[in-house]
Structures are given as C-alpha cells and as structure tokens.
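Below is a complete specimen:
___
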Amino acid sequence: MNNFWQHHFLNNPISDWAIAVTIIAVSSILLRFIQHKVTGKLKAAALKTATTIDDFVVEVIQSSVMPLLYILSIYAGLGYLDFPEKAEAIKHIAFLLVNTFFVLKMINAFIAYLFRQFLSKHEKDETREKQSRGILLIIKVMVWVLGLLFLLNNLGYNITTLIAGLGIGGIAIALAAQTILGDMFSYLVIFFDKPFEVGDFIIVDDKMGTVEYIGIKTTRIRALSGEQLVFSNADLTNSRIHNYKRMQERRVVFSFGVTYNTPAAKLAAIPAAIKKIVESLEGTKFDRAHFKEFGDFSLNFEVVYFLFSADYNAYMDSQQLINTKLLTYFEQEGIEFAFPTQTLFINKAVSNDQ
C-alpha cells in the first residue's frame, strides 16, 4: 500500500495528489456550507432592515467573494503540488487573472452602489438616471484600464514605458480636445452640484429660458420667444446663472406718481390703502409703501411686497390685480396719476409809456 502512495503521477506522488484533492474538496464543502447556511441567514436578515448597505454586502459576497474563495481553495490545493516551470507560470497567470477580475468586479459594484445611493437621495428623474449610466460606464472603463495595468505589472512587464506613452498621448489629446474635455468636466459639475435641472427657468447673461436637455457637451434651453438656445457646459459653469425655479418667494418693487395738486391728507392715506390692497390678495405679503420723493412732475411712491410663488404668470396676475384695485381707489378718492408735463409761467412786462 505504501508503494501505491509513492507512485508518481505528473511528477508528483499519489499521496501529494490525495492531499491536494482533499484540500480542494474539504474547502469546497466548507464554502458550500457557508454559502447556503451563513450567507442565506445574512440575506434573510438584510431583507428585514431598512438600510441597503447590508443587501449590497450580501450581494457582493454571493457574486464575487464566494467565487473568489473557491478559486483560492483550488489554488491552495494545487500549491501543494510541483509543476513544470511553464505549467507553474500558467497557473500563476490564471490565478492573477481570476483574482483581478473579481476584485475589479467588487470595486465596480461598490462604485455603482454609491451612484445608486446618490440618486436615491434626489427625486426620481429618468434623465439623470440615463446620464448617471453614462458617467458610470466611463468610471468603470477607467477602473478596468487601471486593473489591467496592475495585472501587467504583476506579470513582470515593464509598464513604465506604456504609462509614459499614455501620458504623452493623453497630454496631446487633452491639448487637441481641451474644449471638449472642459465641457465634459463641466457636465460632471452640473450633474453632481446641480446648479440647475431639466425644467428649471434660468437666466444666463441676457439669455433666458427653460432647460430642456443637459448633455455631456451642451445644454439646451427653450427661450420665451420659442427658439432653442444651445450653450456649452463650460460657458454655463463659468457664468452667473439666475435660477428662478428655485426661488422660494419673489420680491416685487413697483413705483407710481401722483400729481402735485393732490391734497396732503390724501397723500398720507395712500400707503395704508396700498397695504390693504396687497393684503387682500392670496399668496402675498406686504412689506412697505412710502411717499418716496418729489419728482420733476410727480409725487412718487414706492411699494414693496412678496409673492410666495416662483411662477411668473402668478406674479403678473397679482400685479394686475393690485394695479386695477389701485386705479379704482384713486378714481373713488379723486386722485390723479401724474404724467410728464411742463408748466410755463409768462410774466408780461408793463411799459412805462402806457
């Protein structure tokens, strides 16, 4: 019997093969038990919690960690055997390939989880979800490229020349496409910082309109006059943007003038009358009304009130009601609005000869 265990198969005693197979078999049985019992209980417990991090951990364990442990058990068993140099090199390369694959898979899964968490904190938006998939794809490609470089380095290849070549090529590409790259980075700023979103009404310099589309290079806005305005993302992030969609309340200031022949008592009653008019409207808050100044041809008043709506039409509706009621009040009190006039006084000189 001892002679049997000493027989060689592929340059290894039968006893060593038996030990290697035992290591692989016992490890596989143990891992299978862990997968069905322990992992199953973890998954059941994760379903009962409100957080998603435990669900993510269980998913990663099932999809990446467990397969990687199976590979490690096989590698550990085969490590007990002696193989020719070429076979050993192939085994080492295969192990590195599999390890790198599952490690990169876990890294990408973690990045995708962070993206999902980021999106879940905001209102569900199909456009943002589509944009996030594009960004996620770019990041995953970068992770796989870095992983490939790491693998080549561990296989003994000199990647310094390759990295230097990529660096020089990257600089050349960056210089040739710096505008495009600038717009792409600005797109990332818009995506994460969210100075505006699709549907927001914004003003950029002297252009205004509603955001219709946010792309990797350009953002498109529908102007009030109907045409579509196309901005590069870099222009938008470098500009001062007025976002009226996020305005909590609108501060409205308007002025008017009355004639100089208006009695002082009626002038004093105008601010109180305006306050009553503004407070009679829904969604408004009166701030102040003052007899501001003596103008060239009028006695000028200034009024300030707040409107609890960002809608421009709501603002115009409220201002129209205020103007109408103010006109009715003036008609009742006999107060006249001033308009540009000039009064010319002529002094006739009396001759001494007459």
Q: What stands out?
A: The first helix runs from residue 2 to 6. Residues 41 and 234 are 50 Å apart (CA to CA). Residues 187-243 form a domain with the SH3 type barrels. fold (CATH 2.30.30.60). The mean pLDDT is 80.
